[in-house]
Design goal:
With 192 residues, the protein is of the alpha/beta class. It has 2 domains: 1-31; 33-191, TIM Barrel (Alpha-Beta Barrel), CATH 3.20.20. The chain is built from 7 helices and 5 strands. It has helices spanning 4-16, 19-30, 51-61, 78-90, 109-128, 147-152, 165-186; strands spanning 35-37, 65-69, 97-99, 133-135, 189-191. A 5-stranded parallel β-sheet has the order 1-2-3-4-5. The chain is globular and about 55 Å long.
Length: 192
C-alpha cells in the first residue's frame, strides 16, 4: 500500500500529464486487447507466409500483438529471434504467446520424453524473445489419421487398443509437470 507521500507524488505526476495523455491512458484500460496468431496466415498460400509479414499486417490492421506459431519460424537462431522481437517492437506490438506443437499422448515413455525436451526448448525460445506464455497441445491418439476427419467427429477420437482416456490424461499431466520447473525458472507461463 502506498504511503501518503507516494500517493501525493503520484497524483501530482498524473495531474501534470496533458489531458490527451490522461484520456489515452484511461481508454487503453477499457479497450479489448486482441492479438492475431501467425497460424491464421499459415495456409493462405502454398508457401509459408513469413512471420515478419504477419507482424506488419497485424500492425496495419490494428492488433495489439502477435502470437507466434513455432512451426512457422524460419530458424531458432538468436539473430532470427531478435529480428522478430525488434520488428514487433518497431510496430508497437506485443508478442504474448508462442504456440507450440508437442504430443504427450504416447504409451512409449521415450517418445513422451522427446516431446518434453521439445517443450523445454520452446520455453527457452520464449524466454529469449521475452514472450511470457506458451500455448501447449496435450496431444491425441492419432487413431483417426486425417485431421479433417478428426474435426468431423469434433475431436472425439477413440483411444489406442489397450489404453484408456485416463492413461492419456496421466501422460499429459506427468509430462507437463516435468516441464513446470523449467518454465518457472525461465519465467514462462504454460497455457493449455
Amino acid at each position: 500500500m502506498p504511503t501518503r507521500r507516494e500517493w501525493l507524488v503520484g497524483s501530482a505526476a498524473l495531474a501534470a500529464l496533458p489531458a490527451a495523455a490522461q484520456s489515452q491512458a484511461q481508454s487503453t484500460q477499457s479497450r479489448i486487447r486482441l492479438a492475431v496468431s501467425t497460424y491464421s496466415y499459415w495456409h493462405f498460400r502454398t508457401e509459408r507466409y513469413p512471420i515478419e509479414k504477419v507482424i506488419e499486417d497485424a500492425a496495419r490492421l490494428g492488433f495489439e500483438g502477435v502470437e507466434i506459431l513455432h512451426r512457422q519460424m524460419e530458424a531458432e537462431t538468436p539473430a532470427y529471434l531478435n529480428r522478430l522481437k525488434q520488428l514487433a517492437f518497431r510496430y508497437g506490438l506485443s508478442l504474448p504467446m508462442l504456440s507450440i506443437h508437442q504430443d504427450f499422448v504416447f504409451p512409449d515413455a521415450a517418445e513422451r520424453a522427446k516431446h518434453v525436451a521439445h517443450t523445454k526448448r520452446c520455453i527457452e525460445l520464449a524466454a529469449q524473445m521475452a514472450i511470457p506464455a506458451i500455448r501447449l497441445n496435450s496431444g491425441r491418439w492419432k487413431t483417426i489419421p486425417s485431421f479433417d476427419d478428426l474435426m468431423k467427429v469434433k475431436g472425439n477420437e477413440p483411444p489406442l487398443a489397450g489404453y484408456t482416456i485416463d492413461d492419456a490424461f496421466r501422460w499429459c499431466v506427468d509430462s507437463i509437470r516435468e516441464c513446470l520447473p523449467h518454465a518457472e525458472k525461465a519465467g514462462v507461463l504454460l497455457a493449455l
